[in-house]
Amino acid sequence: MAFRSRELFNKLIRKVGRDNLAPGVEESLKKCLPDKKCVMGRAKRGLYAGRHIQFGNQVSEDGGNKTRRTWKPNVQEKRLFSYILDRHIRVKVTTHALRCIDKAGGIDEYLLNIPYKKLDNEMALFWKARIEKMYEELGAMEVGFFSPEEEQKLEEGFEQLKIAQREARREARRLASQGSRKGTLIEEGQKDRAIGDSGTHPGQQESAS
User: Fold this and answer.
1) What does the pLDDT average to over 1-19?
2) Measured distance CA(96)–CA(52) in Å, rounded
3) Are 46 and 92 in contact (CB under 8 A)?
4) Which of 50, 58, 181, 193 is the most buried (most CB within 10 A)?
């Protein structure tokens, strides 16, 4: 039952008295009251976790004059990672919803644990239904287990693969160093050849001058 409907129901019960009601009247009265809560338009485009615009008075310090004002929820745009979908979900959330998500352990656990009647918008219902479907598909998958001998073989294979990768990196570094050494030797040989073609050494030219 929504908040306004519940307040109206309690008001009627206080006026009439619960003892004065005939059997079955209370249940029929609950069915007649609307079961739709008032949700603001912004809450339909994000996860607000029940937060709504609050109304009240702003009281001045000097004369105590009251002015009507509103308090809007603190809304942030965040990228929340979903492990079951393996992607980020960009959504507008309130700070209260972020604390609830952190307490639940993630966006997946938060949407799985919260009931459908507490979700205010179609977007949250869509993500909740999609995540539930993914978990059902994972639960229906067959899981195979390895024997201790097979696990030992897999570990040995991974160790050999690591050793082969290490040797390949070492060989690549060795070839790279040899290539750089050959390049320096070629440059030095070209310089010596250029000096020989000129006929004199730079040191000899300095001494002659």
Assistant:
1) 69
2) 11
3) yes
4) 50
Q: What is the reported pLDDT for 11? A: 77
How far are the Cα atoms of 152, 188, 201, 202 from residue 206, in angstroms, in the given order?
A: 73, 21, 9, 6
Which two tokens mark 29?
């009265």
d(CA 58, CA 139): 54
Distance CA 52, CA 3 (A): 12
Buried residues in 14-26 as b, exposed as e (16+ CB within 10 A): eeeeeeeeeeeee
What's the confidence (pLDDT) of residue 33? Answer: 62
End-to-end CA distance of the chain: 107
CA 163 vs. chain centroid, Å, equals 37
- Our CA angle for 27, 33, 39, nearest 5°, is 135
Q: Tokens in use for 59?
A: 């009281």
Could you tell me the CA-to-CA distances from 30 to 2, 8, 145 in Å, in that order? 11, 10, 54
Q: How much is the pTM?
A: 0.51
